[in-house]
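Render this sequence as a predicted structure.
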Amino acid sequence: MIVMKFGGSSIANADRIRDMAEIVKKHVPRKPVLTLSAMGDTTDHLLDAAYAAINTGSSSIDEIQELHLETIAALGLDVENEITPLLEELKNLLIGVSMIKELTKKTQDYLMSFGERLSTRIAAAYFRAVSVNAKALDAWDAGFLSDDNYSSAWILKESWEMIPRKLNPLVKAGVLPVVTGFIAKTTRNTITTLGRGGSDLTATVIAAACGAEEAQVWKDVDGILTADPRIVPEAKPLEAVTYEEAAELAYYGAQVLHPRSMQPCVKTSTPVLVKNSYNARSPGTRIVASLEKPAPVRAITSRKNVTLVDIVSTRMVGQAGFLEQVFSTFAKHDVSIDMVATSEVSISVTVDATYDLSGLREDMLKIAQVHIKTGKAIVTIIGDVERSSEILNRTFSVCAAAGVQAQMLSQGASKVNISFIVNDAQSDEAVRRIHREFFGAS
């Protein structure tokens, strides 16, 4: 068995669904299970409809209905009996939202589930129309139970036994299960969503629970690249990376799998293959547990709009509990820290620029001097940290030649990550220079 996940851009319209089906048909001998996101921008349209219901009293689903009904017509399907009740259910939900003028997380998850529920039914019907025996399954009918942490639910351990019990008999019978990504149900029968990377998480849970050969995640890029191609046009796809490297790349700005969605496959050492649905011939990037001979640098990424907070106090020297006071203050103000660097008398941390730090600064001034510097970016090098002296020597040489000044350095505990801070305006040039140093010019 393999698991194949396709995102919204890969099934955005009738033509894309046809292309997706051609890819899947070539893999039928490998007994696939299919996981789908909502079509195109449907999730955004659902949220827009909800806010319109709250603000204007509208309960219109015209945009959503038009996309799905036009797709059905273009594909020549007779599936209105499955789609129309869902559209009616959605409209009634929006009428309710418009009346109470409120959208709780629980209601929002229910609302957002319609995209995947619609896309899987249309896709399964198209597969049957082209002689592939397919069956649409809502995630809960495929064994997915979650906690009630709405908008970011986690799959319950009972699901690991239920999922293979539901899916394996279908696969053995020659059926193509088409499962909704991103959603689940609680034990109290309420719908939840799985948060960022939720559809990828659905696919990796299925792959890990069923002992699949691999999980394939089909996106709109040729795999995991050595850098963002918008910054470095000559960036190259990587043949393979480790789970740890992929997680660090995702955290520091690369559009890869969300670290949360890789955890099930990490648990079972199930390979994940990232492929391009727009360029199926590209080999893609395989994510695995380990690599025999890693290169000194695997990839470079960056994240802009970062704030640097320098905390300085001589009270740190020899004083137990000072760091606890600092981090407790960040926790009190619900500010998440990205990077940390310390010395005898100072701590430097980075946070996202969207945080309002005025209250945190006021509290922190009671125990230390605080300097807040905005307009920063994190540049991250993913590679073999055992060769950090070589990497840093070459990195800072090319940065110095370009007039790029590193302002803080942090080597991750993961042993694959070296990060440093530069001015926002210099980050793209830093990435380009480092990439040219380690990967050469095109």
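Summary. The longest helix spans residues 105-129. Residues 297-439 form a domain with the VC0802-like fold (CATH 3.30.2130.10).
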